[in-house]
Recover the amino acids of this structure.
């Protein structure tokens, strides 16, 4: 029998990779999206016609209940999110509505309409914040450092409560940073890839604007926040495979998904600019205005459970990922008109 | 004159805190929800006729789910202190209304913090967030202190956990004077009638006077650290009078089971209870052989919190906290007050007038 999967956040990086992964495995894929998001260019545009689109807004419980009813899914992947921790300071209430309350609306819909469905909920390594323990595993206490992380803790704890209280199959993936050429431009990794591409092509004023409406690269410089920020970065294509594996297990559990290898933003700059034969020091500046009010600490995954129980090992390493992102930006800047961050 | 704004002023803590602040000379503003029934019983003795001069207590209609309203009230009042005591505060009910609980308890706290910033009051207004021992849930350490990791077990507790973290985040990011009081259970004669302690004292008083036959309870072995709300609101005020904002556990450090609470309340009424059976068949029998306590599984929570015990040494050290009212005294006071109202009902009934029956 053909399995049916419902993905919220289908137009995002993870949603589009996951949809491809499930289509390859013969699933019927339903994607929930806001009408206005679907009708502009996005990461899942190339999947039009191959997936069923359900229009709805994650801040409206009725829309979520309707999507669950229409899709009658065997598996649900809840990826919809206000996905920018730094921006969550300026958008704290909205972030809680989408990242926190929408999740429980979905869990309630599952409880009443399709209690046998398996649910994957996207939790985040941001929940660890200033963790006292390095690396972090499934038992590390949370210490969220921004409204995004606090909202993710909310949804993560509710996932556990729905699992324990009602016996629903609700599993979570505590995903560490995962990037790809599909990352929107306002993510720092993609900014760097774009900056390196500009350097390669000799562009001193990028056609792309940053969140403050200024060229991303201005006077030949890319402005970033705190460059000593250290993260565990993997490739999104590897991570969506982990999501799928998490729902194929006999029991619903929480899984930390990350590479276990840590790099700083400066490392990322070095690899990206070196790929196009440039020294990043000449092109990147640190702007205090881009530093977050509170910084997340050193987050690095202890992915032992994912490796042992899911057999999950990332296939794409850091350097390959960064170079791929830079190549994609070079190709885009050579051919395409500018896109603006949404 | 200092001005304080209290959300949840119509609740148990709101009423005690309003009384305390009025005694201390504050101008007190409270937010109450419009409801179909009058909901100001607990503060009617403090409320002043709107026509008298030099009033020091004011009520505003409002709701933690209405940000426009919160911004307007805070702007009008320009409070020196805000006590966020308003909440959907019933753990079992939160499983029925998880979304509303999050909206009022989690987003509600955030809305106030945002309003303070938006109005440019970060340096003037101090913020108290009513956090809860329910954050500890499935306890990771015994007893629980400010450094114990949280493990919430209900939609109520998770919503309160969000409010806890967002309060910490806003304090650290924006330098606001904002703090969490992690209060263990605190009770009083004006505790809501559906909370287990009040349910017990009220039911036993009514059983004693023949107004009710039986008391139905959930988990009799749940262990809690119970203090008196009057003592606890003083700590809420003290937390906002320090040099630096910090989070504090407020508790008695003493633990009793629901069963012990029942026995103590019954003894106060001169009733003796013998327990028989076990599990959901356990019953409490009085000396006339009547079954007056039964277990009803409908009062079990989908996920239970079995034990809570607070370590309040930080509050003891920094705030000079010592709980004044002990367990026996708390139970006695609650029973005394509920016996009075049961006597009134009994009198009314005896003279042929209707007295209300109470059902959850």
């Amino acid at each position: 029998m053909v399995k049916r999967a419902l993905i919220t956040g289908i137009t995002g990086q993870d949603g589009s990779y996951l949809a491809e992964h499930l289509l390859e495995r013969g699933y019927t894929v339903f994607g929930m999206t806001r009408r206005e998001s679907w009708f502009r260019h996005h990461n899942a545009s190339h999947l039009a016609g191959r997936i069923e689109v359900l229009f709805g807004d994650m801040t409206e419980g009725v829309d979520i209940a309707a999507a669950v009813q229409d899709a009658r899914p065997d598996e649900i992947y809840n990826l919809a999110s206000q996905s920018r921790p730094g921006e969550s300071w300026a958008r704290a209430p909205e972030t809680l509505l989408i990242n926190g309350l929408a999740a429980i609306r979905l869990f309630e819909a599952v409880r009443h309409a399709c209690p046998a469905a398996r649910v994957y909920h996207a939790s985040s390594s941001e929940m660890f914040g200033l963790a006292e323990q390095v690396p972090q595993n499934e038992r590390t206490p949370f210490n969220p450092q921004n409204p995004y992380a606090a909202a993710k803790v909310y949804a993560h704890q509710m996932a556990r409560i729905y699992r324990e209280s009602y016996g629903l199959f609700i599993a979570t993936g505590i995903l560490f940073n995962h990037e790809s050429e599909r990352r929107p431009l306002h993510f720092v990794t993609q900014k760097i890839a774009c900056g390196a591409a500009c350097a390669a092509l000799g562009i001193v004023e990028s056609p792309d604007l940053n969140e403050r409406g200024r060229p991303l690269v201005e006077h030949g410089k890319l402005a970033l926040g705190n460059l000593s920020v250290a993260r565990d970065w993997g490739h999104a294509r590897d991570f969506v495979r982990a999501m799928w594996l998490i729902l194929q297990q006999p029991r619903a559990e929480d899984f930390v998904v990350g590479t276990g290898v840590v790099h700083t933003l400066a490392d990322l700059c070095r690899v990206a600019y070196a790929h196009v034969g440039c020294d990043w020091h000449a092109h990147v500046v640190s702007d205090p205005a881009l530093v977050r009010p509170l910084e997340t600490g050193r987050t690095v995954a202890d992915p032992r459970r994912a490796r042992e129980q899911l057999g999950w090992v990332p296939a794409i390493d850091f350097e390959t990922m960064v170079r791929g992102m830079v190549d994609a930006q070079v190709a885009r800047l050579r051919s395409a008109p500018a896109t603006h961050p949404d | 004159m200092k001005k304080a704004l209290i959300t949840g002023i119509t609740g148990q803590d709101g009423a005690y805190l309003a009384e305390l602040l009025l005694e201390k000379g504050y101008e007190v503003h409270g937010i109450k929800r419009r409801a179909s029934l009058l909901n100001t019983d607990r503060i009617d003795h403090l409320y002043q006729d709107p026509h008298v001069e030099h009033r020091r207590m004011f009520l505003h209609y409002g709701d933690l789910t209405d940000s426009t309203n919160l911004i307007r009230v805070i702007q009008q009042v320009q409070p020196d202190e805000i006590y966020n005591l308003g909440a959907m505060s019933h753990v079992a009910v939160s499983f029925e209304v998880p979304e509303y609980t999050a909206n009022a308890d989690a987003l509600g706290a955030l809305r106030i913090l945002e309003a303070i910033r938006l109005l440019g009051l970060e340096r003037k207004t101090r913020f108290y967030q009513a956090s809860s021992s329910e954050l500890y849930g499935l306890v990771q350490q015994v007893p629980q202190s400010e450094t114990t990791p949280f493990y919430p077990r209900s939609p109520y507790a998770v919503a309160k956990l969000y409010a806890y973290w967002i309060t910490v985040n806003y304090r650290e990011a924006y330098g606001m004077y904002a703090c969490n009081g992690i209060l263990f259970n605190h009770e009083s004669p004006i505790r809501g009638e559906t909370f287990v302690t009040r349910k017990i004292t009220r039911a036993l008083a009514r059983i004693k006077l023949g107004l009710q036959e039986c008391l139905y309870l959930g988990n009799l072995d749940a262990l809690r650290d119970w203090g008196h709300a009057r003592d606890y609101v003083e700590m809420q005020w003290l937390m906002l009078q320090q040099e630096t904002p910090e989070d504090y556990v407020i508790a008695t450090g003493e633990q009793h089971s629901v069963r012990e609470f029942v026995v103590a309340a019954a003894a106060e009424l001169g009733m003796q209870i013998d327990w028989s059976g076990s599990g959901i068949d356990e019953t409490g029998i009085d000396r006339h052989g009547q079954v007056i306590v039964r277990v009803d599984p409908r009062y079990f929570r989908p996920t239970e919190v079995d034990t809570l015990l607070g370590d309040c040494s930080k509050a003891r050290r920094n705030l000079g906290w010592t709980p004044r009212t002990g367990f026996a005294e708390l139970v006695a006071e609650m029973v005394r007050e509920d016996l009075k109202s049961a006597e009134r009902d009994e009198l009314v009934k005896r003279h042929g007038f209707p007295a209300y029956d109470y059902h959850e």
